[in-house]
Write a structure and sequence with these properties.
Helices cover 49% and strands 5% of the residues. The protein has helices at residues 13-22, 26-38, 42-47, 77-90, 108-122, 130-143, 148-155, 160-163, 172-175, 180-184, and strands spanning 53-54, 59-62, 71-74.
Length: 190
């Protein structure tokens, strides 16, 4: 018997922005923005090292992600800007986002709490988690017209079928798809 497959929760770009807007702590904001900007899993953002940020090529190196695979993802200009502000204030040594004692990375539970606190402040009613930022990243790229094969590589999916879940989340109004009934009845311009 097949397991029911639920569609992932995705936030609109405006709701993602509202999460960043209510996050006052620069370290917390940098963590959340990096997670969304590169489509990272929570464990991946926690394990990032300073040397993984490649500002010259505008990419982030994700070492030993799920399945022990290395990959590159995007480093946006806005993300780089917030990371530089964060670095000036905190001056991390090895891990980009160190934990309490600065020798270990921040814990995944700490990042989850940061997200939960921001979500509560925004009063977003959806059952969102940190992983929702990753789902939103993929869906927003798809909505912007990015080829699904590129999204697959950015997310580190081995099989394209894993990435195709995001096709179900695309906003149909952005695709300008007309129902055949509207075309048949001449309702094309409405």
């Amino acid at each position: 018997m097949k397991e029911p497959r639920r569609l992932p929760v995705v936030l609109s770009p405006q709701k993602v922005k509202s999460i960043f807007d209510v996050t006052d702590n620069i370290k917390h904001k940098a963590i959340l923005m990096t997670t969304y900007s590169a489509g990272l899993r929570v464990s991946e953002v926690c394990k990032l090292k300073i040397k993984d940020i490649d500002s010259k090529n505008m990419q982030i190196f994700i070492r030993q992600g799920k399945g022990k695979k290395d990959r590159y993802s995007l480093l946006s200009k806005a993300n780089l800007k917030i990371l530089r502000e964060y670095w000036k204030k905190y001056k991390p040594k090895e891990f980009l986002f160190p934990g309490r004692y600065c020798i270990d990375p921040i814990s995944t539970r700490s990042v989850q709490r940061i997200f939960e606190k921001a979500l509560k402040k925004t009063r977003i009613a959806k059952n969102a988690t940190v992983h929702t930022l990753r789902h939103s990243f993929a869906t927003h790229l798809l909505d912007a017209g990015t080829d699904i094969c590129f999204i697959q590589r950015l997310l580190g999916h081995t099989r394209i079928t894993t990435t195709t879940i995001y096709l179900h989340l695309r906003r149909m109004d952005l695709l300008s798809i007309k129902s055949p009934l509207d075309i048949l009845l001449g309702e094309e311009n409405d």
